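Input/output pair, single chain:
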Amino acid sequence: MTQALLLSALLAFSATPRKPSGRLTAAQAEFSRGDFAAALRDLDAAVSETGDDPTLSKIHLLRGQCYGAQRDLVKAEEAFEKALESDPEAKLDPQRVDPSLVSLLEGLRDRMQGELEVRTDRPAKVHLDGKPIGLSPVKASVAIGRHKLEAHTGDGKYSASSSVVIAAHKTTTVEVELAENRREEDTPPVGPGGRGGDGGRDGSGEPRGAGSSFSIYGGRPLADLRLGVNPLDIVNVPHAEVGFGAEWPYIRASVHLQFLPGFGIVPRGGLWVPVVDQVRAFVELELPVYFPQGTTALALGLGGCGGAEFFFIKWLSAFAEIGARNFFLPGPEVQVTIQAGMRMRLP
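Output:
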């Protein structure tokens, strides 16, 4: 009677299904003994019994190693692909695993792709691992795994950085909130006891008397000097203008005074976008108002232009543009303009 009860208990225990983690442990032992077929049976059973991604990734990594040991690289690659689908950061220890299998896994990681969508709270240039991927909001296909994500406004005033893990065959959406960069001179000096002293700053932490002299309603002050010609009337004296204004992310506004050959005022406003690190493209609207010499008639028109700007350094650039102006006072007249000059911003 006792023997029958003991035998029943042993049979019941042996019939209890193993947990996936238990099958994985058993498969690891079988792999270490070189019994790859037995290890694969346990691993295939474990796959059907778990939905936990980290555990699935470990199971498929070991499946890939079993197939690699059997020199079936096609099935090894299929197993590694499933491991990366479960965990895009899955790795093999190069000190313990065949280097060819490690290379196979890393090559798959480089080839497998996911979608990254980046949204920022203000227009910004987005870089991934130091390479530009576009202006926010931006969506791009990138290799799976962990990457360094950086975003900054065109004027460099606001920025943010973080790491992001891209999953295979999925869209990873990242919402980025940019923070204002603090200049070194804005950091309060350390006072006695390790606490920041006053350092000439008011209660808000800003330097006394600073701020308003370096911005115009939050924009960066600028000035430019330009020369222009009408290619349809090149015998006339080129006109010269000096302008003052401000620039914000992707927006610019300025007022220009023409002093050659006659006096005039040209308000301008427009949009700009970065093309590459040192080059911008821009479009602008103009409202030219001229006071021709030798007459009391006022010349008033509406115009537009487009061009490009190259930065020698952060605060000094050269630009060239082409545009057209339609003067409707004192009479209809259309002018084509080509202008070039230098633009300087406060550093």
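The first strand starts at residue 113 and ends at 120. The helical segments are 2-15, 20-33, 36-49, 53-69, 73-86, 99-111.
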